[in-house]
User: What shape does this take?
Amino acid sequence: MYAIIETGGKQYWVVPGEILHVEKLTAKEGTEVTFTALWSADQEAKTAPDSKSPAAKVTARIVRHLQGPKIIVFRKKSKKAYEKASGHRQELTEIEVKDIQLT
Assistant: This one.
């Protein structure tokens, strides 16, 4: 069983038991969140529900909040002695997919 969910403007292919990092969610650590799947399928039955209705409900548990790796942003103008460096660390949430329920 697998599903495709959308959160934080991105789409993720998920299976039960998987741990993944998504854009920061406002819920506290240890709480469960539910996502509506854009598409889902059952591997054994080889069937997919109609694409016009919500395919499934995906339940996940928030493991922790963290920051991603540091990304260095460097700007320079040639022949002008202008150099500027800054960094960015994205706020992320680590979730564990518990269950996918077909509707």
About this structure: Residues 2-102 form one domain. The CA atoms of residues 28 and 62 lie 7 Å apart.
